[in-house]
Task: structure prediction
Amino acid sequence: MNPMAGSDVVISIRDLRKTFESADGRVLTVLDAVTFDIHRGETVVIMGGSGCGKSTLLNCLIGEYSIDGGSIHYCTSDLDVPVNICGLSERDFNAIRRRIGILFQSGALFNSMTLAENVALPLREHSYVDPSIIDIVVTLKLQQVKMLPHRDKMPTQLSGGQKKRAGLARATALDPEILFYDEPSAGLDPVTSSAIDELIIDLSRKLQVTSVVVTHEMDSAFRIADRMVMLDKGRVLRIGPRSDFEALRDANAQSLTDPSDRLINQFLNGLADGPLTDADGMSEFEKLIIGTAASRGN
Amino acid sequence: MSSTPAAPNPSAFEPGRWSQIPRRLVLAVGDATAARIDQIYEFIGDLGGMVHLLGATMQWALRGLFLKTVKLGRASLVEQMVRVGVRSIGIVVLVQVFIGCILALQLAPTLESYGQLQMVANVVAIAVVRELGPLITAIVLSGFAGASIAAEIGAMVESEEIKALRAHAINPIRFLIVPRVLATTVMIVGLAVIADTVGVIGGFLTSWAALGITPETYFQQTQAALVIKDFITGLVKAGVFGMLVSLIACYQGLTVHGGAVGVGAATTATVVKSIVAIIGMDAVFTAVFYAFGL
Result:
């Protein structure tokens, strides 16, 4: 069955499961039954506490990790039919990789190359155009992220924010349809973080790309998201438009009857970090309160 | 954290305590055996990994040579050749001059006692060209280039550069490993030629200045001692040593984990494993050449 037939879905994730084996041989399920779609042109923010599986999900989406169950279908414009990347050969997946761009948490610039060479690398590797044309494209891409004055600098001469801008220029070098961002605001001061957010919004509008952003920075998430996906313990806890999450964030915790609404409210207001719930659906805070009450009762 | 001296434990002197000794001995032997078995598994895993890396490297190198669509990156190859080969000429020359000098001085008393002092030239020539030229060059390269390659690739793994390459649909083996392995393999052959020449010159300078052997006699003896197969066997060995050093370095770099500590460990492991592999391979070559009369 084609899960994306007649729709504007560009990535379709169905029952995604990813496990890891720990050093002592135990199997840890990091992602379980993750199901959602990403539509063409939208900005989806995947968020959750530390260890909830958001980075693992990103690595599965970009083909860095193999998956243990479910499917990830891509339907980029050059594909006639959606392609399930699970079990796809490296060579076949590379065709999809040319249609996606990734901004890594550290920028991941090649330290042995100048900024211009970094941006030119995907163009040099995947095209046979004249070097002068590549130079023009590099200039445009660096201009787009306001890094043109630094084109001949080495990555070690740049600040964290500048590295991310340059990484973004490289990620957009091949005019991708989908841009993945891994913690774009991590480690940046609020002003630089805000500037990176503006850049993401700007690029999404100008380039008409689909953006998938993994972050745990709430301010940043609310600035850039069209839709939000909240992960918890490897499962999708909630998915919906930004307005739904804004309503949950601004709601009075006492007025929320649904336990998951209360947990999301806690997280969005910075009152909880890490995996939100345990197997019994209790937060660390709830367990503490209940545990204390129980011990008093004894 | 400072530890305070433990107070004498009275139970240590109880009779029951001594009965535990055989059990503890068995446990200690068991633990040590298990650790060795783990090391053997790790060794087999590393060996398999390197064979896989060699296969992939050869495949990409051949595709790069014969298919126009596969870009090997000449600029990168030249850059690596300069880094591995040209920059290590100085240290190889220095070491080989010393080797030539040492050989001449060590051999002189024994050969003189047989009245064959001029034979110093023959032995130095054979030893340097067949054995010490390629061997010492490879060992120098394992520290000079191997460690640097492992550290560079390890740092790239840690800073997500390898992940970024894959994300841009650029194969890291084609882009990073092939130029390094090709450059090291080619340049070590050139370096071995230099090492052979310089080693013989080192032996000559010592023989002339300290042992009183005339230049004519020294070069006549050297010419008489060497045949073309000596050069060829030496250079074949050098090429294989170069491939070994670069493969070990690249493999150690690619399998780095644990941040800066992991990069440091990979660098050390590269030098140690390279030296062991070079000498082991040299023993195999020597046995094969001996068996076939080469």
